[in-house]
Design brief:
By secondary structure, the protein is α/β, with parallel strands linked by helices. Among the domains are: about 150 residues, P-loop containing nucleotide triphosphate hydrolases (Rossmann fold, 3-Layer(aba) Sandwich), CATH 3.40.50.300; about 35 residues. It has 11 helices and 10 strands. Strand 7, helix 6 and strand 8 form a beta-alpha-beta unit. The chain starts with 6 loop residues before the first strand and ends with a helix.
Length: about 290
């Protein structure tokens, strides 16, 4: 594998436009090998577009990027071979068994059949799917399907793993399981992991470094502690709200202070004001007629 000094990802002014919409604007990242990096932001901030560019799925409008030492434009095939990608809504062939699906994915990477078989055995054991590998995927729970998708992202033993909303649509127990698996991959398997999420508790727990993106632009970057300390926040959620300029919940619920009694009084005032205006108009017309 080609190594680019100490960084698994290097981007320089990476930009992606969709027509007149700037999805990602001049993104600059340097992510060291062996770290877990979290890209946070609201829906539509540019997280998924960033991941799709870094996986050489879509081309940037301008700028450049290297992933595990390979250029995402001129060496896109090598990028895909050396990266595992779990999209937010992965596609599964429901009428295949877990084993058949993973064999299919392995063949897409042109892996030898013997290697595919041994990798599948290792992954099924790692994700506690032994005994269910010959069951159709349509009978799997969401948590189990997410495990199979993670297996698919790891089958070619990538150095870099991209996870887009890995706990999306999972119940708390399944989400906890997936977070534990991500932690194990980073610590025990020495993988570099890039996570896109808007779940702040997961990011604070799993990530060594965090970037917050909004409207396609990186607003702040650092370790969770550095980001929290930089704005004098109590936790990452508090820091995120301050950085994004989101109103406090008290402000958002200020309308609740408008009691029915206050509303009645306000309506009475408006009625009185309306009558005054009407009377002024009538008096004005009377004066004109007398003249």
């Amino acid at each position: 594998m080609k190594i680019s000094e100490k960084n698994a990802i290097i981007t320089k002014d990476l930009t992606k436009n969709f027509g007149n919409v700037v999805a990602v604007n001049n993104l600059n990242l340097k992510i060291p090998y062996g770290t877990t990096y979290g890209l946070l932001g609201p829906n539509g901030a540019g997280k998924t577009t960033t991941v799709r560019m870094l996986n050489a799925i879509i081309s940037p409008t301008s700028g450049s990027a290297q992933v595990v030492g390979y250029d995402i434009i001129t060496e896109s095939k090598q990028v895909k071979i050396n990266c595992g990608f779990l999209p937010e809504s992965p596609g599964l062939y429901q009428k295949l068994t877990a084993k058949e699906f993973l064999e299919f994915v392995g063949e897409l990477y042109y892996l030898p059949k013997e290697l595919i078989s041994s990798r599948i055995e290792e992954l099924l054991e790692l994700f506690n799917l032994e005994g269910r590998e010959n069951d159709l995927l349509e009978g799997y729970s969401r948590g189990m399907k997410q495990k199979v998708c993670l297996c698919a992202a790891l089958i070619q033993d990538p150095k870099m793993i991209f996870l887009d909303e890995p706990t999306s649509n999972l119940d708390p127990a399944a989400a906890r399981m997936v977070k534990d698996l991500i932690s194990d991959l980073a610590k025990k398997a020495d993988k570099t992991i890039f996570i896109c999420t808007h779940l702040l508790d997961a990011a604070e727990e799993l990530c060594d470094f965090i970037g917050i993106i909004d409207n396609g632009e990186l607003k702040v970057e650092g370790s969770p502690k550095e980001i929290i300390d930089s704005v004098g926040a109590k936790d990452l959620e508090d820091a995120y709200l301050k950085i994004m300029g989101v109103s406090k919940i008290d402000d958002l619920l200020a309308w609740r202070e408008e009691t029915p009694q206050n509303n009645k009084e306000e309506k009475k005032k408006k009625k009185k004001e309306k009558k005054r205006k009407e009377n002024r108009k009538k008096n004005g017309k009377s004066l004109e007629s007398n003249c």
